[in-house]
Design a protein that fits this description.
By secondary structure, this protein is of the alpha/beta class. The chain has six helices and eight strands. The strands form two sheets. Strands 5-6-7-3-8 form a five-stranded parallel beta sheet, sandwiched between helices. Strands 2-1-4 form a three-stranded antiparallel beta sheet, with helices on one face.
């Protein structure tokens, strides 16, 4: 059996004397998917931020496989990324590629835009786009960089059914290539397609 890429053990979070995330435990190996579901306020985003290193857990622990660098090995889609005002969508993607060692001239940015059905906005500036288009750009940025684990918060937000299906297929392709995926979603299509582990969260009393 493969050694887990990440083990989440009884992770919980308390803020202002109130428990906003009840203890959660699960593990993931390379190529597996864990899908978090639950009502708003059940702590899904909080757990993802803890896994991404953006917040600290009050209790519990997260153990990473020794070979995984929790900073370089994790790609996140947790809201809008910071955008450069004077870079187009395509230039943002090229910047990400170069930052992670791809040579200038790679066709990866064009391919990911085509796969998401947004090649037409390649020369637009992100802040000019609709919220749905910006969501797709955020997904493109997360998908294009190398990673061993992807963390996504409601990737289906503001997307129509066709675009949701495209995102599901791209995440399945990531899994087929050995990338572990953990995401929060309200969409049953994402649960059915991507969940090797289904983690149902509840609102704490």
């Amino acid at each position: 059996m493969s050694k887990p890429l990440v083990e989440v053990s009884a992770v919980s979070k308390t803020a202002s004397g109130r428990k906003i995330l009840a203890p959660v435990s699960f593990s993931l190996t390379a190529g597996e998917g864990a899908v978090l579901t639950g009502p708003n306020g059940s702590g899904k985003t909080t757990l993802l931020k803890i896994m991404a290193g953006r917040e600290l857990a009050t209790e519990g622990s997260i153990r990473w496989r020794e070979s995984l660098d929790p900073r370089a090995g994790i790609a996140t889609v947790l809201g809008d990324p910071p955008y450069f005002e004077n870079l187009t969508v395509l230039e943002h993607l090229r910047f990400v590629c170069v930052s992670w060692g791809d040579l200038p001239g790679t066709s990866a940015p064009e391919r990911i835009l085509e796969a998401l059905g947004i090649a037409r906005i390649r020369d637009s500036f992100p802040l000019e786009l609709s919220s749905g288009e910006r969501q797709l750009v955020a997904l493109a940025i997360g998908l294009i960089r190398p990673s061993e684990l992807m963390i996504l918060d409601e990737p289906e937000q503001r997307l129509d059914s066709e675009r949701r299906a495209r995102v599901v297929e791209l995440l399945l392709d990531k899994k087929r290539n050995g990338v572990a995926v953990v995401l929060a979603t309200h969409d049953s299509q994402f649960v059915e397609a991507l969940a090797d582990s289904h983690v149902a969260l509840e609102i704490t009393a």
